Here is the input.
Amino acid sequence: MGDDAVIARIEAQLEELKLRLPGLEGKANKRERTQVNKDIYNLENDEAYVAAIKGSLNAGRARQAAAEDEAHAEALKREAAEEDARAEAAAKRREEAAAAAAAGGGAPVDDDGESHLEMKLIRKGDGETFPKPGDNVHVQYKGTFAAGTIHDGRDLSGKEFDSTWQTKLKEHKPLAFQLGAGRVIRGWEECLLEMSLGGIVEATIGPKWAYRKGGVQDGEGGYVIPPNATLCFHMELVGVRGQMAGKPK
Here is the structure.
């Protein structure tokens, strides 16, 4: 007899016995009431019944675990498909950016065949509004030097060198520019092509896709960004083609 059948049989007997108890109140029915309670106890502790309950619980947990595993596998498949779609779309946008640059629409692309960008996703964007070359974008950011950045004997690791945060206003003033027009470093161009509106990333950009061996100097000849510096940016894409994050289209 299977677990379900054992449980059904015992519980039917228990229900029948429990229904008898209200009619067995009083001294005259004490002996019969005691026997009924004893029978209930014995049934509730019957080895076959207890084993069937445990088996049923274990089977339920196994079914739940299997369902959760299946749901997790499906979620992983969806995420993989979404990632493949994003990668394909980003590759297409990079091709468009390279074509625009080659046609004179932006800074020349110095491509050594390697990527000099590492991205860590902090928050997904809307997954729909991706910028493409020629689009006007708005970006909020904070730039710091990568760990191990040394210049003139000074350790610049983690030091902030630029930001859109306005201390007096206590808010960001996003940087607006046309993507693919050579207005920003290549690392930014490549990074933004993989982001969608509202997305936040932490980007680490090697010198070949940043300011290379020239660095950035101030008006007095001092270096704001030293030569061959690896840069880290906390970037948020807040505007694409006039559409601002958090505002209805």
